[in-house]
Write the structure tokens for this entry.
Amino acid sequence: MPDRIVPHFEVVGHSETKVDAYALVTGKPVFVEDTDVAGSLHIAFLTSPHPHAHIVEIDTSRAEALPGVALILTHENTPARRYTTAGQGYPEPSPYDTRMFDSTVRFVGDRVAAVAAETLEIARAAVRLIDVRYEMLPAVLSIDAALAVDAPVIHDEDDSTGIHDAARNTVSVVEVDVGDIDAGFAGSVTVVETVCETQYAQHAPIEPHVVQGYLDNDGRLVLVSSTQVPFHARRIVSMVLDLPLYRVRVIKPRIGGGFGVKQEILLEDVVGLVTIRTGRPSLAVLSRPEEFYASRTRHPMRVRVKLGAGDDGVLRAVDMEVISNTGAYGSHALTVMSNVGSKTLPLYNKAPNVRFDGKTVYTNMPVGGAYRGYGATQGYFALETAMDELAGDLGMDPVELRRRNHIRVGETSPIFEAIGEGKAGVEQTVKSCELEQCIDIGAERIGWDAKRGARRRDGSWVHGVGMSIHMQGSGIADVDMAAATIKMNDDGSFNLLIGATDLGTGSDTILGQIAAEVLGVPLVKVVVYSSDTDMTPFDTGAYASSTTYVSGNAVRLAAEQVRDQILEVASSMLGEDTKKLRIGSERVTTPTGEIVTLEDVGLRAFYATDQIQIGATASYVGAESPPPFLASFAEVAVDTETGQVKIIDYVAVADCGVPINPAAAEGQVEGAVANGIGYALTEEMLISDHGRVRNPTFFDYKIPAAPDLPRIRTILVDSYEPTGPMGAKSIAEIGINAPMPTIANAIYDAVGVRLHTTPFTPERVLDALEGIQQNG
Amino acid sequence: MKLMITLTINGTQRSIETELGETLLEVLRREGMKSVKLGCDTGDCGACAVLLDGSAVNACMVLAVAADGKDVVTVEGLERDGHLHPMQQAMVDAGAVQCGFCTPGMLMSGIDLLSRNPDPTEDEVREALGGNLCRCTGYVKQVDAILATARLQAGETDA
Ligand code: FES
Ligand code: FES
């Protein structure tokens, strides 16, 4: 293979200061709730205490009588049209099974009523005065109960659409068959089969969902929202409230993390309706408990993986069977399921025989949704556990087994085409993959050869190492569209207007860097403004690891057009052919060293000759979705007395192409790994027999704090993706898939037990340890 | 019941009307200190941390009346003569700010730590941040920023 030619960059590839860093570090009022909007009403919700019930009667008279109450919304006075809360491309691949307020409630936490009042205290007091008479319905509180022959039907209404088989509580199915799976196993020397069960987990952004609404001077509805998907929010609100789209404006200011949960339209509809009905501004914020029980979660899944391999360890057959629990509504049900297969199976493309069978069911439990990793996380836990088990059965080093099977540059997988998101996928050949290097570096840094199997003891603590490998994608090929507008100013600076949504990830910064690189200016000369449906061009939003790749390419294209316009003007100023001109250091230079500055160009274009606004809009749709890759290694210590697991060292080695901003890219990996460690060890929404979330606080739902984590070591390897902007691929999600299998495999190395149920709490570890003692 | 309290907020004494059950968090935000964030309201996330008479406390867990007569510092009060507090600059330089929602609270805990222990180990920094949840960063760069601040301040004292 010829050496890659990675161009030299001035702005890209440098850890530039985030464009919003100073505002954030000085505590400027940049978040939704930081602007006091005069006269704003406050909204509080009444949610269902029952997992499944009909509302027979709802009496709001006592609540309405409370001084300060402005409006109460229930199923009796709100639009009845069904929609999905999932902020996805249109038409959404999620079923329309939700109403703003419904006469049937389907989980503990389902919306029953909303009160808008002068203060939050009054609104909450009024909520307690609403009298509701429920008729209990039988509730479905597990995957098995949903699939039982006589299971109660959760969506028996006749106006929901897009449900695969409502009578069987089945939201969606995904079935793919490549080659001949039975022949594949028959021809295998070693076969392993493993079943993993993952738990309910929550995104827990430190800023909860929050929306401020008001009417502008023309009576248009303005929603300032902590959303990942301003354009989808505008479309869905307009549809649900039956408002013309042009009468709605959605603005996303700074937001305090999203991780997928803010890809959901949970408050915009209610705030919008309150503001329209009352003519007054209104504010809704989810409380922390509501964030846990009433927003969205990671779909719990049962994943069965069966692998068959030859003596050489090369896979002959891969069979994955998945049942996912979407809870009461089918938000992201189909597409998360698709991703369980589409983001995992192509990694091991050596297997000619592959089967994927996924089914998503309704239950009367909290609602699933988009969550960083988006199904790949659950799939990788099972797949990478099974790979480790296969290595054991083959007597092969787990690292070596991965080396023999993973996809490489120039290769493809039939799965790319077979599974898309709600439709067929897109065929693609991998053009950049440095996974071999990632594995080598990771193994070396963790000390794999010395530590694997050594079971070093330290009192009751035993050490072990584990690993796993991963791929994700960069946007949804053929679906996600992003656009960017760049206009030049008369001092040679630029405005970059993008629909892309910075959730704290730094996307405003890296998109600014891409523009600055093409235009030959420092980042400060690119003023970035994003995510305002009135002011910025369209973007599907921040999800599916799309921003760097899809939005980044849109910015690159817009910047190239603007650069060409600048060269045109400079060419007539300098009397030199545009092809001979060079742009950089805020000027245009001829081969003989003559110079015009960008300010000269701007002044001429604005005020002097052939006057024109230099500027361009470009859009981009990915023809493919180049995967980032990751090799993950951990050293853990397991306390054989208490079952406690400590992470001693964690090494994540990633190929994200050229990192546009290395510090930001590392930050994405570090944050995702930290979240994944929580998911593996402590984070679990405990659901009572009655379907109630028992631990909806940060005290009882434990997300990792600094003392719980080691110094996560992130290494970004040299790589270049030819279709990416400046060689980049996306990086936001992949890291979260790694800790669960990596840690499970490390626990096995330390103490010889396989954990298939998550999270790996001390009780589960102790139970497993006792299991081997009894059997042994 | 309305009550009057006196707070010194970032060096300026203010008389403030408060309700009996109101928290310091609510009062500070109403007084315009929007850096004080509400992440949980139960004392578990640290997003609302402020310095009360020099020590970091979660403002959601302090009744406003209990802070009567005390001195409060929030992030709005960290800049000196137009210069950022060194820990703010260190957070920016380390790339420790992602969404930034937790950053004010982190700064308060970090400043509190260095006032008690000017030369902490990495483990001590992590312990001090134990009550500050961040969902974005994995803490690596925040810990680095606090350690860098300690080194910088030690250098200044030596000089
Ligand atoms: S809001 Fe005070 S500790 Fe979370
Ligand atoms: S930077 Fe987002 S919570 Fe810490």
